[in-house]
Amino acid sequence: MNFDYTEEQIALQDTLRRFFARDYGFEHRRAMSKSADGFDRAAWATFADFGILALPFPEDFGGLNGNAVDTMLVMEMLGRGLALEPYLPGVVLCGGLLRDAGSTAQKEALLPAIAGGELMLAFAHFGAGGRYALDHVATKATPEGGGWTLDGAKAVVLAAPSADKFIVSAREGLGLSLFLVDAKAPGVSLRSYPTQDGARAADLRLDGVQVSADALIGPAGGALPLIERAVDYANAALCAEAVGIMAALNEVTLEYLKTRKQFGQPIGKFQALQHRMADMVIATEQARSMATLAAVRADSDDAAERSRCIAAAKAYVLQSARLVGQQAVQLHGGMGVTDELNVGHYFKRLTMIGLSFGDVDYHLGRFSDSLLAA
Amino acid sequence: MDLDYSVEESQFRAEVRAFLRDQLPNEIARKVHGGKRLAKDDFVRWQKILHAKGWGASSWPVAHGGTGWSPVQQHIFDEECADAGAPMQLPFGLKMVAPVIMAFGNPAQQARFLPRIVDGSDWWCQGYSEPGSGSDLASLKTRAVRDGDHYVVNGQKTWNTLGQYADWIFCLVRTSSEGRQQEGISFLLIDMKTPGITVRPIIMMDGEHEINEVWFEDVKVPVENRVGEENKGWTYAKFLLGHERTGIAGVGRSKRELKKLKAIACRESSAGRPLIEDARFRDRIAQVEMELMALEITNLRVISAEGEKKRAPGPEASILKIKGSEIQQLLTELQMQALGHYALPWLHESLDPAWSGDPAMPAYEDDAGPLSGHYFNVRKTTIYGGSNEIQKNIISQMILGL
Ligand SMILES: Cc1cc2nc3c(=O)[nH]c(=O)nc-3n(C[C@H](O)[C@H](O)[C@H](O)COP(=O)(O)OP(=O)(O)OC[C@H]3O[C@@H](n4cnc5c(N)ncnc54)[C@H](O)[C@@H]3O)c2cc1C
């Protein structure tokens, strides 16, 4: 058993921490959130320089051969820094799917471009009526002239407005398939909007979109296990991001308890608030443990064990995140509900994590159902 | 023991319901049900309609132009108004400053201010909190220095709800720094048009302008605008707090939001089936409904005791405030959760009454856009009106003697 990060991992963590402290302050983030892209392209280029866009890919394709623990470390720092950049959809999800299921030609063409920051991808999977169920896909793929025609609609595709390409799931007969679709392809249309956290997403329509045979990622009709694995991976990453945010919220809240005075003393002298703060720290430590478990199991080839642990981790982390987020706002009093303070923005991002790729009930249900199988 | 309304009370409910059906403007009710932004004019227009019926002030005695209703009648009225989608009658004039003016103001003040509150002419806001004085209100620093027949006021108030629309502000100001903090505070009524007042918006995390900072720089306030005696303002403020808590449970509004939650859960689907059939989510609705059932009866117990003049609204009102605010927060949280992915878009424009969905997004119902903003907005309810921590201090000290 070993809970330590390697020297390399610690160095990466420090690099990211310094970057966010120095070059990505809260007001900068606010300005970027209001820009057309809703994130900072210069920061994305810096991420490429740091190597984090290459992290999860094999060395043969310009990657750094990192594992899920490396991804966890990065996500925790992105959480702390309240990064708007679409690392999760582009690198973790789409990059992960290509790494795990792409053909050699696809990997050669795409992974180095992702790693270099030149290519941005978004994962267009969920649609109306399915809620978080991964196998509920209404978008249709019809074989045509050696390729396929795609028709359907996708809801709330994270980072879609900045994506050069989408990975689109579609139903063909009884199974699901994944396709690489160019954002500019005829028949693709977007309705873009900001999301709760100040980043961007879009609803996507696919009207008779033609894709060729080499657009297929993985086996035709056999994509569900790939999707499940990629979404597990994304959820493990979101657990880490949430832990980073919770740690940051605890720090600012603790500082506030020490400095805000009422009744002639710092409010941190009130025992009711001391206990509340202690509960927040306990919840964060427990969440960190679950996020660690999720990261370690994310690379596991035992799909059942991987899913079971990540479901438990996400459900648990979301419960902790709810407590920490809500109480951080509460303990800041009126200041906590303002747009001016970073607390509300951390809280909004945490809330959004709670509604992305499965909410607390969805993951609790998955974990609970796994007890029947045992 | 009898938990049913009397025949007269039921008849009264029917009368209120009929009135609302005939008189509540449709476009206003639609905004309320859809969670849209209300304009100043919506509030004022509704107040004027109520006033024309003689129902402008449901909690006031007849002598001052109120209805003279019993607390149970007021509760029925609130519940029916909320269900019909009437805008909330803002408490600052009707429920906060008016009772103070009635109890401690002189006849000239009563004649000048009360009729203009009930008929919707004057919009009032509350100037208590300051940057350094929130929970510890008695430490407030805004100074009023007597200069002949005026006070000269300097200082800053904050978190002022809807002060951007206000004609008048009632303020607690420091008129003495001798003795205990509580003994140097006076209660002033200040015309917002007086030179030296600056109102600056504070944007909340839902992106809305609902609160303000109010700055006072050498603001001249006639001494005749002081309510009661100099340095006795704290007593009046405490009296007001008791009044503020009637109706604070918000049972009517929460019942309306519970209905809406159920409607969303029936409409949204989960893996192809209505979300309401998902026992895990349905249990969450059941849990909050049980809380609300209990609160409704607790509320009726408190207000019935008040009506029988057994006692004034006392520390047990803190229970209503705590539970009422928690339920309100939980309901918005569940409404948002019910929407799933569709709660993620930040469709700020959807608060605009003119926005009615987007043809490019057929899956979004009209009310989906505002819901996540509401969740962020109502975090305020456990903070304002005496935070829930302060309410628990009141319960432990005043009820439990700890
Ligand atoms: C949306 C909104 C609208 C408002 N509208 C108005 C208005 O119109 N007019 C007006 O005058 N004011 C208004 N307020 C102000 C409100 O009354 C104050 O925010 C509230 O009293 C808390 O004060 P504070 O914000 O300074 O927080 P603080 O008093 O600094 O409290 C910070 C935290 O410490 C806790 N705390 C403080 N003291 C204790 C203690 N002794 N024991 C345990 N915990 C404690 C609090 O509960 C809170 O969690 C509004 C506030 C909000 C958020």
Topology:
The complex is a heterodimer of chains A (374) and B (402).
Chain A: H1 7-23, H2 26-34, H3 41-50, H4 68-80, H5 87-101, H6 104-115, E1 121-124, E2 140-144, E3 147-158, E4 165-172, E5 175-182, E6 188-194, E7 200-211, E8 216-217, H7 224-259, E9 261-262, E10 265-266, H8 271-298, H9 303-331, H10 342-353, H11 360-373
Parallel strand pairs in A: 1-4
Antiparallel strand pairs in A: 2-3, 3-7, 4-5, 5-8, 6-7, 9-10
Helix pairs in contact in A: 1-4, 4-7, 4-8, 5-6, 5-7, 7-8, 7-9, 7-10, 8-9, 9-10, 9-11
Chain B: H1 7-23, H2 26-34, H3 40-53, H4 71-84, H5 91-104, H6 107-118, E1 124-127, E2 143-147, E3 150-161, E4 168-174, E5 185-191, E6 197-203, E7 209-222, E8 226-227, H7 233-244, H8 251-267, E9 269-270, E10 273-274, H9 279-307, H10 317-339, H11 368-377, H12 388-399
Parallel strand pairs in B: 1-4
Antiparallel strand pairs in B: 2-3, 3-7, 4-5, 5-8, 6-7, 9-10
The complex binds flavin-adenine dinucleotide.
Flavin-adenine dinucleotide sits between chains B (125-129, 134-135, 159-161, 211, 380, 383-384, 387, 389-390, 393) and A (260, 262-263, 267, 270, 272-273, 330-331, 333-334, 337).
